[in-house]
Amino acid sequence: MANADAADFLVEIGTEELPPKAIKELKAAFARQLGEGLERQRLSHSGISSYATPRRLAVIASGLAPAQADRELAQTGPPLSVAYDAEGLPTPAARAFAARCGVSVDALDRTRTEKGEWLSCRTIETGRSAAELLPAIVREALYSLPVPRRMRWGALDDEFVRPVHWVLMLHGEDVIEASLFGVEAGSSTRGHRFLSGGEIVVGRPADYLRVLEQAFVLADFGRRRQLIVDDVQNAARAAGGIAIANDDLYDEVTALTEWPVALTGRFDTSFLALPREVIVATLTGHQRYFPIQDEHGRLMAGFVTVANLKSKQPDKVRDGNERVVRPRLADAAFFFDQDRKLPLAARRKALDDVVYQKGLGSIGDRTARLAGLSAAIAKQLGLDTKAAERAADLSKCDLLTGMVGEFPELQGVMGRYYAIESGEPAAVADAVGEQYLPRFAGDSLPETPTGQILAIADKLDALAGAFCLGRKPSGNRDPFGLRRAALGVVRILVEKNLELDLPRLIGKACDGQPAAVADARSPGDDIFDFILERLRAYYVDQLGLAPEVFEAVRARRPASLADFDARVRAVAAFVELDAAASLAASNKRIANILRQAGRESYGPVDAGMLKDAAEKHLYAAVLQAKSAVDPLQGKRAYAAVLTRLAELRPAIDTFFDEVMVMTDDEPLRRNRLALLSGLRALFLDIADVSRLSIG
């Protein structure tokens, strides 16, 4: 290499248009995999930057070393007793070790340890050059990308997300010789498909972004995205409104453009008679346009689109976008008019002929299960079972409408509109609209009681059906969205504080399934454990709760997640008390003593057998505490219970300091064990605090 010092390394893979929804993840994964490869090969650098456009993935490793650092290798051979024979001559073992080290036996060292003296060898391994290592590092990084669907092209056996047309690999000013996907690496890239022609030479990695920008390509994904955000909002303001957008739409539009330019357009105001969600779905889902609303949140008859170039005739571009939108909205208006000609309930019978999943019957069968499960949930909550059953019976009818056929993401949403059109009660219509909430992490929850009931039923039925068929998620694979469903159940029950016997409802959901249970054990326990794992992640990942606090409550296995939540928050407060560490240690000690004693339970304490002052004092303190906390238990004032039990600390500490529990006197020993068992039961009524490790 001409330059012996560290230099930036650039790799760019030029492709046909990449799938827009995958670009952001591919960009991040390429940088991550390349960084890990450099680390494995001991090639030091000062940082990794990644870039992506519709036609390229690129990474720059700043200040990449020209080669691995040399390193000393220490090898230990056979012991001297094996290395030399009785006459002091090298044995085959010694000669083989010397050959492996590349030296003569006489050149080997000797190392003394506690176990004796051994032959050893220290050698210096010369670091390999970056130019030699980089092709394999890049190749491995590319082959490890989370490609949604790989493809082949030409006569190549290699597979990638899209056909590769050019490869750029520079370390400093030097081209790295490599062949990837049948393309030889060079120092050239390509600019905008329409605004720039031919190949463009990059002299060094530091010039990369500037050279591409001159060729009408903004390679920095983050910079390009921010430009789009600013331009879209500015264009909407110029039109007198506010752009409607979310992060996913901004990401997708960023992934579709290299030289973004925002333009506004309009559509006929008559289309504003359509439901808001229909217009938004038409503009965002089909066209990747940004709808505009006024300051009061009302939709305006306009939109912002982002072109991939700055046209000399923007009015023609605008006219073209408007001509595309008109038939889309006209189709939506047609579906909306046609769908309303038939009452929503009239579609219920046809669901019996639509397969839900193989082994789980039709969508009609599922609807019947949801009605029964919704009624059971409503009964537990003391709510209107008829409204819950009616909402469940209508919940899937909109799947057979033309609008949902065109816009699957509007299922439930359109069902609500059609239920209102059909004269259904507001509680029923709103529940139909809320049944799929929350759809994703951070999404809003159902607000109406009937909507909460239907949403829980929908998710429990999905879990029960999948588990009965043995389709529990494994690894990162979750094709049926079961983790999302379980987390939805968790959030609704906890955040809406709904008092439900979850194992009982899971059992009912499983009993209603037509599928045979995958194994001899009922899946009910597995489903409950699966939901508890999502509850654990909810507390630990989202709320920052210590895992051991969750496990302390999980040991009690409360049937109600609302009750579970109250206990978790009480234990979280308990660990902050001064007495918590001592009480947790004492509970652990008591648990060990009772386990070693080998008995499941003990009778009541015989007060007449108490001998030592410390055990009498503890007995009296336990009785007083029990009398104080029993009323609090019924009110679920768990924090107050644990605070009161914390007052037992002095009596417990004195007891263990002065009393021998495992005495040889068997009746006395059993009586003391009964005292400890009763004490531990006071804590176990809330949580197993012996699982807490408090420093």
Describe this structure in words.
With 695 residues, the protein is an alpha+beta fold. It folds into 5 domains: 7-67 and 129-214, no CATH class; 71-125, no CATH class; 221-339, no CATH class; 346-544, Hypothetical protein af1432 (Orthogonal Bundle); 568-691, Isoleucyl-tRNA Synthetase, Domain 1 (Orthogonal Bundle), CATH 1.10.730. Helix content is 48%, strand content 13%. The protein has a 5-stranded antiparallel sheet with strand order 2-3-1-7-8. It has a 4-stranded antiparallel sheet with strand order 13-15-16-14, with helices on both faces. A 3-stranded antiparallel sheet has the order 4-6-5. Strand 2 and strand 3 (56-64) form a beta hairpin. The chain is flat and about 100 Å long. The model has no long low-confidence stretch (mean pLDDT 93).
Shape: flat
Beta-strand residue percentage: 5-15%
Known CATH architecture of the largest domain: Orthogonal Bundle
CATH class membership of the largest domain: Mainly Alpha
By DSSP (H or I, 4+ residues per run), the number of helices equals 25
Percentage of residues assigned to helices: 40-55%
Let me know the largest β-sheet: 5 strands, antiparallel
Structural class: alpha+beta
